[in-house]
From TrEMBL:
Compartments reported by the entry: Periplasm
Designated name of the protein: Thiol:disulfide interchange protein
Keyword Disulfide bond tagged: yes
UniProt key word Disulfide bond: yes
Cross-referenced Pfam families: DSBA
Listed transmembrane segments: none
Length: 212
């Protein structure tokens, strides 16, 4: 009688157990995630959009960044990840304008994380146009170019769209994640950041299956 070597069993059993859990894991509407009503259109209908809503002044959003980067390294190819600043107050609004100014100027990659760090690690009060102009200048952005972009029609349009979508997505706190314009989840709903990403993966699979 052939017997599986014990060392192979020791390796395989945990993997099999994990596989069973992964297949069985599911989450419930109204508990770990909620419906966005009505659902909102996404930028690319051929992709499953995962949208993070955040605020630069939010410490939880800042601490989520490394986990987002880890998740991005493993996300499926059919997933399009985007960020959108939520707007739930005056200081939220000026930070949203900063985000879109960086996007319009093509410097978001070198502004996004340093702006978070400046606020939460260095305790800088970057909540006025003047202070943000100085911060952008520290990162190689010409002050005149900053002012022009910050007050541009393009940034204003993006700001107004973010303000509208914050309401349509039913957001009352951040960080929050919207999957394909249809589902809303958060660390609060999922009872933890790590579990939140598992909920996101579950919803991505749900949408991927629906598209087939």
């Amino acid at each position: 009688m052939n017997k599986t070597p014990r060392f192979l069993l020791a390796l395989l059993l945990p993997l099999l157990a994990f596989s069973q859990v992964a297949r069985a894991e599911s989450f419930d509407e109204g508990i770990e995630y909620q419906l966005v009503t009505p659902a909102q259109a996404t930028d690319d209908p051929d992709k499953v959009e995962v949208l993070e809503l955040f605020w630069y002044g939010c410490p939880h959003c800042y601490h989520l960044e490394p986990e987002i980067q880890a998740w991005l390294a493993t996300k499926p190819d059919n997933v399009e990840f985007r960020r959108m600043p939520a707007i739930l107050g005056q200081s939220w609004g000026i930070h949203a304008r900063a985000f879109y100014t960086a996007e319009v100027l093509g410097v978001l990659d070198r502004i996004h994380e340093p702006l978070f760090a400046a606020i939460h690690e260095q305790n800088r009060h970057l909540n006025t146009e003047e202070s943000l102009q100085g911060f952008f200048a520290e990162h190689g952005v010409d002050p005149e170019e900053f002012t022009k972009a910050f007050n541009s029609f393009t940034v204003e349009s993006k700001y107004r769209r973010a303000l509208s979508l914050t309401k349509k997505y039913g957001i009352d706190g951040v960080p929050a994640i919207i999957v394909n314009g249809k589902y809303r989840t958060s660390a609060t709903l999922a009872e933890g950041r790590e579990r939140m990403f598992r909920v996101v993966d579950f919803l991505v699979q749900k949408e991927t299956g629906a598209a087939k």
